[in-house]
Amino acid sequence: MSKPKLTFHYPEQMGHIILLAMEEIIGPRGAKAIFTQVPTFSRIDNDPPRNRNLQFSFDVISRLQSALEETYGATAGRGVALRIGRVCFKYGLREFGTQMGLTKMAFRLLPFPARLWEGGKSLAELFNRFTDQRVRIEERGGQILWHIERCPLCWGRQTEYPACYLAVGLLQESLYWLSGGKIFNVEETGCIAHGDPTCTIVIEQDPISW
Question: Is domain 9-204 classified as CATH 3.90.1520.10?
Answer without folding.
Answer: yes
